[in-house]
Amino acid sequence: MSQFVASSPIHRFTDQAKRARPTQPNLTAPAHQTSGRRDLSRLPKAHLHLHFTGAMRPQTLIDLANEQGVRLPSHLLAIDPLKVPADGRGWFRFQRSYDSARHLVRSESAMRRIVREAVEDDAKEGSVRLEMQVDPTSYAPWVGGITPALEIILDEARQAWRDTGVEVGIIVAASRIRHPLDARILARLAAQYAGEGPGKVVGFGLSNDERVGTTSEFGAAFGIARRAGLASLPHGGELLGPESVRNVVTALNPARLGHGVRTTEDPDLLRRLIDEGVAFEVCPTSNVHLGVYQDFSHVPLPVFMKYGATVALGADDPLLFRSRLVHQYARARDTFGLSDQQIADLASQSINASLASSASKNQWHAHIQAWLNTPPYDGHND
């Protein structure tokens, strides 16, 4: 995501405006159970594509605005991008909303709340592993610098893991719209906190509008991170097609590709990445809301499955897309007619693509098999 924008469009609000704010949805409310299907919220899975501010609960956004006495723009209060024609969606609309939300994250307590609630929400959805992406530069002005900002997030991640059982790894991400030298600073910071266990930095990413900047100029930063044992986890292949993917793969040597859906437009490239062991973090609802695809049925998940790619479904930014991880699984199952075995395979792939320990992965795979061994919902059993 892009960096903090000081002129974010939020304003002082009146009591009348405050009362007029629409009720915000609970994105982890239990889903309706369908006879003959197993409960997806009980399926162990890894959530590998979630951005820090975008992980915020809608109600938390309202609470932070109330605390600071600001009025949020209408596009953050009543978001239903699917009612916007596909050619009217896109990056600008999304970025404007993200900047407005991030402008409210101005304290240690707000940062801790976002981490805590994101982990709790993933726990409710059956996630056993969360790898959250953050650029500490965005929050540094409010907590004394990029080092305190990262340490706050790591500390809360450890505490949330102890309380929920969800393992949390942090991905430090540079932004394409900043100078590549800034990325090197972040890579050195990430290297200081590298590790495998919960509450450690596990990877280094590159996010924001992939149409901006020259990918190869970020190669030095990724080299710093790689030498510290951090996985290369850049975005690519969402707003741009296969050529962008080639540039990312050549310059940054990714272990996983954030999104990467446009890779399917070049079968030879797709086969190459699969052979090289690159996994894909596919965020279907995000793709639709950004206008990459007209609707969920056009997301090329079946193509990835056909070619045998390793796929990890992700929610990307639930705050803005009003959809969390379990919804990606539910929509995929319903839209593409996937069996519970196929859904379990996707969950297993997400665990394989995670940066968790082998011991944790083995345990979670056993729990997935246990999920498959339980009888599906019959209209009566819990």
TrEMBL record:
Keywords: Hydrolase, Metal-binding, Zinc. It comes from the Bacteria. The keyword Repeat does not apply. Residues 44-369 form the Adenosine deaminase domain. Residues 1-40 are annotated as: Disordered. One of its GO terms (biological process) is purine ribonucleoside monophosphate biosynthetic process. Gene3D superfamilies: Metal-dependent hydrolases (3.20.20.140). One of its GO terms (molecular function) is metal ion binding. Its cofactor is Zn(2+). InterPro entries: A/AMP_deam_AS, A_deaminase_dom, Ado/ade_deaminase, Metal_Hydrolase. It holds the Pfam family A_deaminase. NCBIfam families: aden_deam, PRK09358.1-5. Belongs to the metallo-dependent hydrolases superfamily. Adenosine and AMP deaminases family. This is Adenosine deaminase. It comes from Schaalia turicensis ACS-279-V-Col4.
